[in-house]
Amino acid sequence: MGIVMVLLRWVLLAVAVVLAAWVTPDVDFGGGPLSALVVAALVAAANVVAQLLLRWLPTSDSMLVVAATTLVVNGCAVWLASAFTTRLQIDNIIAAITFALMVTVFSVALTWVAERVVARLTRSDAEAG
Questions:
Q1: In whole angstroms, what is the distance from residue 12 CA to residue 16 CA?
Q2: Which of 35, 57, 78, 126 is the most buried (most CB within 10 A)?
């Protein structure tokens, strides 16, 4: 993955963070685009920590249990990440879990749209060239 795609995903995650904070009760985001990028970097770091923690936890055969565990661990990691910045305030663990879920939903949707746009632009360039 090239540097442009990494930067694009970071920007998309920043937009997802802002949207998730906007729709999630008990979560406040303060700041502009630079703040969104900082919080997105913290959320990404929290997700890396959450994935490492999930490897140590025992696994279940039930996808529902795995999904719920992943969601709770991600919520806790995001809540912990919010302690490192004044730009993101999360009032309780339920808000953190909801916020983590909303960030995931928005991030997946925005990434899906961006991939379609890039593919269409690439196809248009190939046809024109």
A1: 6
A2: 78
- What is the structure's pLDDT at 65? 79
pLDDT per position as a tens digit, 33-80: 998 999 899 888 888 888 887 787 777 777 887 788 888 888 888 898
Residues 6+ apart with CB under 8 A from 42: 81, 82, 84, 85, 88
Owning domain of residue 50 = 3-128
Structure tokens at 50: 């959450």
Helix or strand holding residue 59 (H, E): none
Query: What crossing angle do the helices spanning 33-56 and 3-23 adopt, rounded to 10°?
Result: 90
Nearest-5° angle of CA 45, CA 70, CA 63? 145
